[in-house]
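Example 3.2
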Amino acid sequence: MIRCVNALQEGLAVFEKGRFCREKWEKYIDSILPGSRHMFLSDMQACLDAGFDWEKDFLPVLSAVPGHPGLKELEENFSLVTQGLEEKVLSCFGRSVDAEIVLYLGLLGGAGWVTEVNGRLHVLLGAEKILELSWQDADSMRGLVWHELGHVYHGQWGKLKQAAPDGEKRFVWQLFTEGIAMVFEQMLAGDAAYFHQDRQGWKAWCDSRFPKILRDFAADLPVMSPQNQRYFGDWASYEGKGDVGYYLGARFVRHLMKEEAFDRLIGRDVENIWQQFMKWTEKEWV
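Structure, written as tokens:
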């Protein structure tokens, strides 16, 4: 069962005279997701440890939410794109997922995050990041919700949750899991060429450079880290373009789907995906 919760208005109450109050925010988090405060604080600390700054990187984004011109559109489109969502997933895949989709304030590290809270998978949508990226329009919101739900589907019907790989295999696994979520989006859209990131010629640019993107990703692997990777997240940039890893991941999964159906593919393990990636690169470079 998919349950959708808009907790954004309650989140706006964490501001005191226009200033973000961290103590109120922590209480707000526990009110909508009981007992989860420590998890969010830990995630925030991980971002700070990675080099982000609270005053420079997070606080301005949070402070821009009250009075933001896109706030009403965001809430309206959250309601719009989640209506009939379970029926759409059932119609497309023959089975649904058990998850709670929550629109709220304070995800900090991104626009969407899939995590387990109190034994149930949640799709958490950070309003402040969505507004910063101007993703409050219906198409962007739809893509974001579908993408995160793709991770949930992978987790509940496949083998998403495995022992975290180290080194190069970590990022190949990330390429695969993001590719699975992208293809999940495409299947719901009924369009294998669909990418919610496709603005201002983004997909055409990626298509024209596909062999180079693959070569560069493979060449980066030996030295790739969460701090220097160029492929995943709005803060990452590959030759001036964002989200290129999501494009490459979708291409990888589509390649694998030539031999195996999507619902079987999500059951593969890390080692198998690593081997398949190596074979793919060899084939593309011949």
